[in-house]
Predict the 3D structure of the following.
Amino acid sequence: MTESISKTDASQSSKIDFINISEKRVGLFVTCLVNAMRPSIGFASITLLEQAGCAVEVPEAQSCCGQPAFNSGDDEGTRQIAYQTIEQFEGFDYVVVPSGSCAAMIKKNFIEVFKDQPEWLARAQHLADITHELLSFLVDVCDFTPEGIALDGSYTYHDSCSGYRSLGVYEQPRKMLAKVTGLSHKPLNGHSECCGFGGTFCVKYSDISNEIVAEKTENVLATEAEYLLGGDMGCLMNMAGKLNRDGHQTIKALHTAEVLAGMTAQIVGVKNAGK
Amino acid sequence: MQVNKPENFNANVKKALAQTDLKMIIRRTTDKADSKRAEAVANFPEFENARTQGQKVKDHTIKYMDHYLAEFEKNALAQGTIVHWASTGEEASKIVLDICRQHKAKKVTRSKSMLGEEIGLTHAFDNSEMERIETDLAEHIIQLAGDPPSHIVWPAMHRSREDVIKLFRQFHKDPTYSEEIVDLVGSARRDLRTKFLTSDIGISGSNFLLADSGSSCTVTNEGNAELTITPPKVHIVTAGIEKLVPSMAHAVPLLRLLTRSATGAEITQYITFHNGPKRPNDADGPQECHIVLVDNGRTKMLADGMEEMLRCIRCGACMNHCVVYKHIGGHAYGSVYPGPMGSVLTPHLNSLEVANKQTHACTMNGRCEEVCPVNIPLPKLLRSLRAQSWEKKFEPLTNRFFVQAFSQVAKRPKLFQFASACGVIFMKVFSRKGWIRFMPMTSGWTRNRDLIAPSSQTFMQQYKKMKKAKSGGG
């Protein structure tokens, strides 16, 4: 059944259509953590992509990238999740994900579970080719520079592992953040060391994860920055949650997109993140 | 010290985390290794080239293993070395002990070899009438302490200087009362020197086996391998078959990678090529040479599609850079080989059933692969072991249930969106001032961290509303 859906069917099935006529039709893959825990990152992504000249569509029938199944070794479960993601998104010019980890899953790992299904492998490969992590997409593909954004204070940056190692996201967020008036950068010792999140790892091996994130937050606090920025909700939740548990409520953990879209006023900070 | 078992991984981890000074002791070594390696790589512009070349050499030799093994045997025999083949660790151990008994050996000296540990040689000697003398300084320390190794390059890294001072004072005949490293080394040297010269048999491992000459290469810093091998009448090499390379020229890029990746050194103090027994005009050397070529699961790894792991040159960089290893240390893995490479190897040397938890104790951050001198895709291999383990249903039932339930929902986007919305409502019940400190079924998270409270509605709910308002307004 699923095999019969062609590329054009998939694009037609995305009913949302903003009037913005542009050369880049972008499908936003929201990710399950942003969807449930921090919608503002999703809206910030739309804002930034539109500012960068993209026509953004958000297919309503989307779920998770499948990492919980994939990293647990459940290949069949991963395929089941991947089928519909491929169908929903393969018709776009670009698929953009506000998370290095979920983007890397679609870009690098989908093809691993379709080794024995040539037709799906080709479709997964096509999806991999058009999928990008948000911050690198804005800079590398759209050559986007944020304008008129101001935020007083200093930030330190955590480079999430998948974005940094699998997708080469490093300069792009820093380049854009340098354009934010009033915001200065304080380098983080061990900026690219894992924060201990690791998806299911952080609950399966909670105590090891805790030791790792404790070291991370120690480094974060040592920078004395006001903002802890990153590009992955999972890592941010982990570090912010540890900081809050340990009583460090002054530092605010934000997704880079929230800062660049000028949405920090709405999000008072870590402490009131949920409003 | 009681030896940890791989199947008790979770208990081992608990024990390790409770040991408050362990992390600090490990970090003394790994932090230094990390920065020294980075420096060595930065000062070696050909590193990437060497890495590609090293990988190619390994892949080629592994692909034509049968050819190179036959060539190695032929050339080793021509040098006068006696070649033995062992398909299991037990068999290998027995071959070594039998040779020692044929020579009525009382004392055997051993230079550090992880393969020796793998095949259970240390235990085999300890259960025999013979005395085993470890000559590598770190191995000497753990022999005195009765510990298993906790790292493949620094087996005693879990022992602090204070521990070593105590051990040496307790066990050395002429101990030092100084606490300076140089004096401690002197104490060990005094203790070991006489033993080198009175040993009946010397046993070493091998870093590389050269097929075109039948020789074996050892890479050390202390010179103990040379002293282990030269004075006794008999020299026995134990080596895994994956140590083969076609020739010395092929070993060179791997040597350059090995020393830099292991300790950050351009070269070690000693790199020795051992070429069989003493020849008529040689000044010294053993009268008899044996080499035991060990399979112990390696050909099965080839058959199982794990051939990339056979590239491993045992440098330890993957564990030095592993966030998990750095917090739990080597003993928690319950295997001779800890850290990322160990988590891939142990299921093959032992079984996946007993060693599958280690494959999950990884955040998949990719650092190990990034620093691996022969490009072993360790995260990919670990994940493939997880997939095998999932197929065989080795995971705890609750884990399987949650993952399967999640997948069942996630494959149905509408249901997933509904479940997410319900989840948000559920979480709001436990939210206080923007945070969740406790919530049923999330103790794995909330035991150590707070959870950010969600917004009142999911992104998709808010987005649909916004879209409706827009289309209504437009």
